[in-house]
Design brief:
Number of strands: 0
Distance between the termini: 40 Å
Number of helices: 7
Radius of gyration: 26 Å
Shape: elongated
Strand content: under 5%
Order of helices and strands: HHHHHHH
Length: about 190
């Protein structure tokens, strides 16, 4: 008869979660890699001289090609760093800090992208591939940031609940032990 696999205790499951941070970090980076590659490809194919977006080129907060190049190459670079960080624990701590800063930058960059699309681009320019990519990048990045924040919130709630449950269980065991010490019938037995 086959043995059942060992059960995970609360502490063992917490330990596994805390030990597997590297895999989670590189997994999130890989989710955005297609967006980064698409941004670089569309930026490289953009010709300002034939684009209807060139008419308002001086009124954009950030040059359109520069916007996508910064977005794309920063995502690609951060993905490479995350994969390297997954291979080395000391390097992982560094890439985690950089990743947090990069996420804040990408969120702000996305807000700028949506602002440019909505307020600075003409309707003809909004039909161009570069404008669609700026909007797509910005929406994906904002949704991804919100999703990541939601996951972190849920993880904090779950880990907080586990910690509270462990504390309550420990407190109850201490109360039982104290009651057993005070009960003469139990202590004589």
């Amino acid at each position: 008869m086959a043995e059942a696999p060992p059960r995970l205790t609360r502490q063992a499951s917490l330990q596994r979660v805390s030990e597997n941070k590297e895999g989670v970090s590189s997994g999130f980076g890989c989710c955005l890699l297609p967006v980064g590659i698409a941004a670089v490809v569309i930026a490289s194919g953009y010709d300002a001289s034939t684009s209807s977006c060139d008419a308002n080129a001086s009124s954009y907060t950030v040059d359109l090609k520069l916007f996508l190049n910064v977005a794309g190459y920063s995502i690609i670079g951060m993905t490479v760093l995350s994969c390297c960080g997954a291979m080395s624990k000391p390097f992982f701590k560094l890439t985690s800090s950089i990743g947090l800063l990069a996420s804040m930058f990408w969120f702000a960059w996305s807000v700028i992208g949506i602002y440019m699309y909505d307020n600075q681009m003409s309707s003809e320019c909004q039909d161009e591939p570069i404008a669609k990519m700026i909007l797509s990048y910005s929406i994906i990045q904002i949704v991804f940031t919100a999703l990541l924040a939601g996951c972190v919130f849920c993880l904090v709630c779950v880990l907080g609940g586990i910690a509270v449950a462990s504390a309550v269980a420990g407190s109850q065991e201490q109360q039982r032990a104290a009651a057993n010490e005070q009960d003469p019938l139990v202590s004589d037995a």
